[in-house]
Design brief:
Elements: E1 2-9, H1 13-18, H2 20-32, E2 36-41, E3 47-53, H3 57-65, H4 68-71, E4 75-82, E5 86-88, E6 100-102
Parallel strand pairs: 5-6
Antiparallel strand pairs: 1-3, 1-4, 2-3
Length: about 110
């Protein structure tokens, strides 16, 4: 199952930036474990987003509890379970193996 995780910052950016290196270490650990597929900040910088792959919402919640932004109370998290029904032909099949493929139109 895929999960969209939306972070909303609760603290000033100056405080978040003091914990940014530890937050990035957290992200890197979960990329290395195969849990996270994409992540980044929102624009404007009011929060962030993570696309994760996991077996349950509880598993994902356990990972997020390790995030320094969570431990320090710097962000609120919304976790959305997501079962994509369609994917672009150039999107990795492993990300959404049950999704039907929609190919781009070829221009002449």
């Amino acid at each position: 199952m895929l999960y969209l995780i939306l972070l909303r910052y609760r603290a000033p950016l100056e405080e978040l930036d003091r914990h940014l290196a530890a937050h990035r270490d957290f992200l890197h650990r979960h990329y290395a474990a195969g849990h996270f597929l994409l992540s980044g900040r929102q624009e404007p910088r009011v929060g962030g987003a993570i696309l994760a792959r996991g077996t349950s919402r509880e598993e994902v919640a356990g990972w997020l509890a390790e995030d320094p932004f969570h431990r320090e109370g710097l962000a609120d998290y919304e976790t959305i379970a997501w079962a994509p029904g369609l994917r672009a032909g150039d999107a990795p099949a492993a990300w959404a193996p049950d999704a039907a493929v929609v190919e781009r139109a070829v221009e002449n």
